[in-house]
Amino acid sequence: MATGELNLHHIGVRFGGLVALDDVSLRVAPGKVVGVIGPNGAGKTTLFNVISGFVTPSDGSLTLDGKPWRPRPHRLSGLGIARTLQGVGQFGGMTVLENVMVGVRGRRAEAEAFAALDRCGVAQYAAVRPGTLPYAIRKRVELARALASKPRILMLDEPAGGLDTDEIRWLGDLIRGELIKDSGTTVLLVEHHMDLVMSVCDEILVLDFGKPIALGTPGEISTNERVTEAYLGAPA
Amino acid sequence: MTDMKTKASASPVPTKVAQERRSMRRLAPIAAVLAGGVVILILSYTLEPFRNYQLATVGAYFCVTAGLTVLTGLNGQLSLGHGALMATGAYSFALAQNKWLSLPLSFVVAIAVTTLAGAVIGLAAARLRGPYLAGLTLAVAIVVPSVTSTFDETFNSDQGLSVVLDPPPGTIPMERWQAWLAWTGALLTVLLLAFLVRGAFGRRLRAVRDDETAAKLAGVNIARTQVLAFVVSAVCAGLSGALFAVLAQSVSPGAFPLTLSLFLVMAIVIGGLGSLFGALLGAILLVALPTFAQSVAEQTGSHRLEGNLALVVFGVVLIVVMLAAPGGLASIRFTFIRRFRRER
């Protein structure tokens, strides 16, 4: 399987009169961590929904490994793309282990699912139903489910939401450590927690009201005036 | 990748314990079905003919309730039309049997026709959710019996068709033969369903039921899973219908009314949604409660009660079970065992 190069060309999404995304282009290079940030309602999750096929763009196109690509949600995992959901989205009627096993194919499904849980530090909850677990643990289970399919592109939708400082540090280490260095996974990250974004990303795209306003390294973004303006309002 | 593998073998659970547990789990349905077969064989030799006939009826009901509990309990699709699918199976069986007089062939025809019917309804059902799906299947339950009066040359209207059966082999009494046929069908059905729902297909079924978005992202094709689930349960209903044709040696629209479909849903809810053991309990209740109601009605000597008391009894049982054990009768077992373990 190719390493996974994802390109977005001039993507536009309209919901009736509302322009959710306007002329967004992005190149996600293999093995990089690319962050998407912006104030609430900037279109970050819509962008994720376009890439995972839940929303069909009104304009523009996508390519995967250089070929034109029209994403369909249930085909993603077959293409080596995994995505976590903002609202956790787990199967309440199944155990944690079964939850993870849904995304794993083949005879070694159970062992691989268990290994993914172990990696995320939640293997001890394998036999429990996710509904009974605290939010932070469920977030880890969700992450384990995405990792179990051994994706080449991993899309994380606000993985730090609801986590405390230690857990966020653990998440950052996971993204920067095992995920990137050891397996060359490409990560696409939507996140509000700036410390995490700034510490793990190679490149950051900033959206505001659906428009891309900046694209660059964390250093460039943190000193960009338009970004500060979008987050804090007009400069004094 | 190498890192994943070393971790997998270093962690304790997926090694020996899990393997033993997995092979145990794999063998459990076979053991249960074999034990069931022995019990049925013993019962069929000890029971009087009428009780044997009732035993056979439980077996025939078990086929459909098992399929329905997988569809409704595990996949979350509520069908109020399984009585109509039973009718489809029964009529296909009757027509094939009267034409070719070959029991195995007639069963194959009944299953083939209901597979087709299940696929057609399933394709429509996969696009519908909740009350809309219930409405569609309800319409099927109402429409199918009236087909018999529209094409009365083939189906002979309300009179129905009689089913010609060869006499049982040897000196086996008819009722015992019927019980064997019904329970062979039921046990095979349950064995196949048990294997299906314990594997990856079962996980996909439940994933679709619990969260469609997350299931899609895990690579599950929602529509295909739903149609497959519907076809599987339609086949079970078709086989059940064919068995009812064998039992009654006739088929008529009156044998598959709308209330039958509703009773089936009630039975799996009382038994415990999604549980094959619960489906067995439901099937037993479907036979036992009307019999009980009838004997009560006879003792009080009221003719008015006779037809309606079964409905009342079913309703009361449903309410009592839902209050006492919301997970159905099958869940009681587990809470009892858990309590027992905790006390030890």
UniProtKB/TrEMBL annotation, chain A:
Keywords: ATP-binding, Nucleotide-binding, Transport. GO terms for cellular component: plasma membrane. The keyword Transferase does not apply. GO terms for molecular function: ATP binding; ATP hydrolysis activity. It holds the Pfam family ABC_tran. SMART domains: AAA. This is Amino acid/amide ABC transporter ATP-binding protein 1 (HAAT family). It comes from Actinoplanes lutulentus.
From TrEMBL, chain B:
The keyword Nucleus does not apply. The keyword Kinase does not apply. Keywords: Cell membrane, Membrane, Transmembrane, Transmembrane helix. It is a multi-pass membrane protein. It holds the Pfam family BPD_transp_2. It is found in: Cell membrane. GO terms for molecular function: branched-chain amino acid transmembrane transporter activity. The chain crosses the membrane at residues 27-47, 53-71, 103-125, 132-151, 177-197, 227-248, 309-336. GO terms for cellular component: plasma membrane. This is Branched-chain amino acid transport system permease protein. It comes from Actinoplanes lutulentus.
